[in-house]
Prior knowledge:
Layout: H1 3-17, H2 21-28, E1 29-35, H3 43-57, E2 61-71, E3 74-83, E4 88-98, E5 104-113, H4 136-152, H5 159-162, E6 163-169, H6 177-186, E7 192-202, E8 205-214, E9 217-228, E10 231-241
Parallel strand pairs: 1-5, 6-10
Antiparallel strand pairs: 2-3, 3-4, 4-5, 7-8, 8-9, 9-10
Helix pairs in contact: 1-2
Amino acid sequence: MSTRLQNATGIYLTGIRDGDPRSAMANYTGARYTQHSAGVPDGKDGFVAFFDAFLARNPRREIRVLRAVEDNGQVFLHVFQSLNDGAAEWVTMDMFNTDDAGRVIEHWDVISAYGPTASGENMLTGPDEPVELERGADNKATVREFVKQVRQAGNLDRLDNFVAEDLIQHHPEIAAGRDGLRVHLADGGDGAYEMLFRVIGQGNFAVAYGKRHRDGADFADFDLYRLENGRIAEQWTCSEQILPRADWGNSGKF
Length: 254
């Protein structure tokens, strides 16, 4: 495990699972800690203050890192959290930026409730290690064009060029297969995908982070894609409604 990945996972496991946010900030972050998580104040002191209260409310915590992607100083984590013996269960996708020493200096996340899916797939299951590392750049380019041409421009006639027919779908609202995705997009299930903020990837995994607008509300979305033979073969998603500006506590989701 690389230093960057150790530091990103350490914030989760030491700071939250093990209940020691001060050690996490001291040992795994750099000169600053810029925060984009909803409701969490900016900076290291903001992290500590928020999680002191969180830990008091949630004394029993199960946290599992499901998947990790590392790309050019950035780390992505796909995480499951069960609080107080399953009283609350969450799926979280996080992105961390790191400094030259590999210490974390910035954090973004999106949190969704864990539950059933329209496809019948579990939100958490599937391959968990990047492979075909030499294809990382090509797969990121494919995902970037898929978002631009299909999700933003609405060119559903291009869907077959980017997505496998037997797409394995973990998104809570989308039915199985390429046809399930086609119906979801044609029915306006995404609303308007307004901004693609970043695409990172490693091997056959690529991650898109962006903002969309649906039914009068803005949402931050992380989509994790697994690619096979140049097409998207599997999708996991976390989506979170963006709070009103007065409730951010920091500079916002992006």
